[in-house]
Design a protein that fits this description.
Helix 4 packs across helix 15 and helix 15 crosses helix 16. By secondary structure, the chain is α/β, with parallel strands linked by helices. It has a 7-stranded mixed sheet with strand order 1-4-5-15-10-11-14, with helices on both faces. Strands 8-7-6-9 form a 4-stranded parallel sheet, sandwiched between helices. The mean pLDDT is about 95. The protein binds pyridoxal-5'-phosphate (PLP). The site of pyridoxal-5'-phosphate has 21 residues, from helix 6, helix 12 and helix 16.
């Protein structure tokens, strides 16, 4: 096998080299992401209006468009050390299998019990909730990774954790549910009869398998109707991208040490947090005119927010209790076909990434799930790691880009985010192996019906 003698297979930073501050890419954006709006008044939300829903420190981070570096509190840095730094891997085996001149790196975030990057933000959010003296937090989870990460973080900080889990995942992923309960969380399938909004959604769509949008509405209602509880969210929000910048900061420090500059940076995009976190420091350079990169967001063809959505103000949840965010969206009423990448089934997208995409700083592409699983299997067989279906969207496009290099002979350097493991996704792999996996792509008519429900907002 051909290897670069200066570049090891796995590159780890030392604890001392780990970032001491998160990087806030908004500070370097000329066009800031549009503000959240109060759904009642249509006016930008003030911090005080968000305090009943979110922890105060997290609200400050959410609204801070100007501070480039925000210190990571010492307690969070200690917690990070239990599972970080995460390895940057040079995919020598994959490069050889593909016969490509491209150099491929991936940043692997699956080396913790929750199995994904979500623990980076869960630790931070649980810490701030505890520091505020709260009893507990409520949240939603799709595939279960966020709920698992949050239940781990809450058990560490001694907080109660109440999770509304999208019903289809609750049924497909009983093991994730049990991991959450092991860490002390209570888990309810959503939509449920526990909340007013859940009852309403069930009355309107009997037999629905749920969606992230529904589960968010239920979790927000539960937080605002219980004393000492706040709502936390594992993706989409600016604060989550901020916490996830640790992925990109570590990756960039490691690559800088090796003298390597990536040409293309690829990540899967559900709500945009891992992608936003991975690209942030590189995007900062691009925004400041210091370096150029190609950034590619990869989404499922069944839930194509960037590639077929509209850039508009929309509700973040199906029940329309959350603030309005300006983002690429399929409409808050959009319920995607049950795709096996549960973590990518959200109708909207981070406002930060939406603005950057709108302004031409990044690209997006969509892929079908059978092609994604082909890439997942090819990757597993040579690199050893069993990837999550979500992460495999990035693998698919990294392989495709490497194969283009094979045609043109270009030695491009590709970096992609490998967000998690697929240990709890074996039903999906089973469907794939049995040839029972299908690719559902929404029709233009279905999307048009969903767009018709977008709120009318004067800007
Ligand atoms: C949640 C999740 C995603 C998608 O969420 P983002 O906020 O877009 O990063 C991707 N991969 C894994 C493994 C996940 O758990």
């Amino acid at each position: 096998m051909k290897t670069d003698k200066n570049i090891p297979y796995k590159i780890y930073l030392s604890e001392d080299e780990m970032p001491k501050a998160w990087y806030n890419v908004r500070a370097d954006m000329k066009n800031k992401p549009a503000p959240l709006l109060n759904p009642g008044t249509g006016k930008p939300l003030q911090a005080e209006e968000l305090y009943p829903i979110f922890c105060e420190e997290l609200v400050k981070q959410e609204l801070d468009n100007d501070t480039a570096f925000i210190e990571i509190p010492e307690e969070i840095r200690q917690c990070y050390k239990t599972f970080r730094p995460s390895p940057l891997v040079r995919a020598y085996f994959l490069e050889e299998a593909l016969g490509t001149p491209a150099k491929i790196y991936y940043k692997y975030e699956g080396n913790n019990t929750s199995g994904s990057h979500k623990l980076n933000s869960a630790m931070a959010q649980a810490y701030y909730a505890k520091k505020q003296g709260l009893k507990g937090v409520t949240t939603e989870t799709g595939a279960g990774q966020w709920g698992t990460a949050l239940s781990m973080a809450c058990s560490l900080f001694g907080l109660d954790c109440k999770v509304y889990m999208v019903k289809v995942s609750y049924e497909q992923k009983p093991f994730r549910r049990e991991v959450m309960r092991t860490y002390g969380a209570s888990v309810t399938p959503s939509p449920s009869m526990e909340t007013e909004i859940g009852k309403k959604i069930l009355a309107e769509h009997p037999g629905t398998t749920g969606s992230l949008g529904c589960a968010i509405s239920e979790a927000v209602e539960a937080a605002t109707t219980h004393e000492g509880y706040r709502y936390v969210l594992g993706s989409v929000l600016n604060q989550v991208l901020l916490h996830q910048s640790i992925i990109g900061l570590e990756a960039k420090t490691a690559l800088d040490k090796l003298g390597v500059k990536p040409d293309i940076i690829i990540g899967c995009a559900g709500g945009g947090s891992n992608l936003g976190g991975l690209i942030s420091p590189f995007m900062g350079q691009k925004l400041r005119g210091e370096a150029d990169y190609r950034f590619i967001a990869v989404e499922p063809a069944s839930c194509p927010s960037f590639t077929r959505g509209k850039f508009a103000y929309d509700f973040c949840d199906t029940g329309k209790v959350c603030p309005l965010a300006k983002m690429y969206t399929l409409g808050s009423g959009f319920i995607p076909a049950p795709n096996h990448a549960g973590g990518l089934r959200y109708h909207g997208m981070s406002s930060i990434l939406s603005q950057l995409y709108h302004d031409g700083y990044m690209e997006a592409t969509s892929v079908c799930q059978t092609d994604v699983f082909k890439a997942a299997e090819q990757f597993a067989r040579v690199e050893g790691i069993l990837p999550a279906p979500e992460s495999s969207h990035a693998i698919r496009v990294a392989i495709d880009e490497a194969l283009k290099c094979k045609e043109t002979g270009e030695e491009k350097t590709i970096l992609f985010g490998l967000t998690g493991t697929g240990y709890f996704d074996m039903f999906a792999y089973e469907k794939f192996h049995n040839g029972e996996m299908t690719d559902y792509i929404p029709t233009d008519e279905e999307l048009a019906a969903s767009f018709a429900t977008l709120p009318v907002v004067e800007e």
